[in-house]
Amino acid sequence: MTRNAPSGILRRWPRPLIATLAAIAATGLGTAAPATATTTVPHTTASRASVTAAAAATQKHVYLRSALGNEPYVTTENGWSGSTGMHAKNVIRARAATPGPWEGYRIDYLGPSSGNAVHLWSDAAQAYVTAEFAWGATSSGLDQRGTLHARPGQTSTGPWETFYLDQTGAHTFTLSVRDSGGKLWYVTAEQNYPGDEAGLLRARATKPGPWEQFTTGPGPQNLIGGDDYPAKWKSPAQDSFANVFGLNRECVSYVAWKIYENSGGTQVPGGQAAPSDWARYSVRVDPTSGSGAWSYAYNWGYAAASHHVTVNHTPTPGSVAWWDRKGVWAAHGTGHVAYVTAVQKSGSAVTGFDIAEYNIEGKDGAYSTIHFTVSNGKLVRRAANTTPSGPMAGVDLGWVPIPDGFVHINGF
Questions:
Q1: Which of 82, 97, 119, 195 is deepest in the core (most CB within 10 A)?
Q2: 278 in helix, strand or coil?
Q3: How confident is the model at residue 412 (pLDDT cuts 50, 70, 90)?
Q4: Please, are residues 216 and 62 in contact by the beta-carbon 8 Å criterion?
């Protein structure tokens, strides 16, 4: 939120330009921005020896999908029991109509100097994904060489776990990997394989085609947390400039950034502008930048309906904690939003949750985190004398109310 007439959003907008809720158009998350130019570094040959990831690797948690047909989600077959071959435990197929626990992956980006190299981590298997180049044909004649497999216990990486992600369209990309001889193979979703082998992912194509195209959707866990708000936005004084995410160092700007990077956005702003692909992964905040803006923080819970986004009283990692402009927030007039970084449960009952935020109660655009507890399985109305961590450690905020709701943008 902001100070004085503070909110989680722009306080210096000319009042005639501030969109009212009734004027906000129902445009969803907006139209995706054009694909940005991608420089592809040649993929170098590597031996089977260990490959060391770059120290500054960026991690994104996503759902993987085949870009073919109805775009099935990529599944780790955690329920299978074989040790090798197509029915091995944790073999990977593009076969699910909807995402669940077996469809979550983490992409570790090793950086451009590594030739667009990535490692894939399966949440279901708790293991890195391997291209099984040592596997041969089955008794029925189906080729299983290069099958993607999250080997149980595979927590280290080598060339067979090192894939190359190359952008082919605004939202599509290919994955390729080298065998022991150094030959590059593109990952294919085997849509013509029969029965429960259909959609098997194999590194077997020498050049990409429709079956080698993949895309992503947001993932439910392994969130990128902490204060990684872009340095070019953090260093200037609060409210020094605005972009489509709002004024810098405001609560809405920070939340829009967290939505962006945890939904799959990888651009790191080198200036004041938002990432060029922001519309694919996040939301428009500033109403002066176009229609469909979420606007002031208090408005987020109401704007959600026009964007077909769920609002409820259940916190989930990656959801947005939302406060209306009432109660302790009434004096500020524009509410507050924060990013839910973790949820604690006992069985199915929520026992607590954590948020990260900027500018709570108009505190000079500072970053802080707060832990909320839940009493008897129900959200209490107020959290007692919460002391945040981060730059505001030791600052007593007094009574911080439980959020009025949780906004589940991008399915988080």
A1: 119
A2: helix
A3: confident
A4: yes
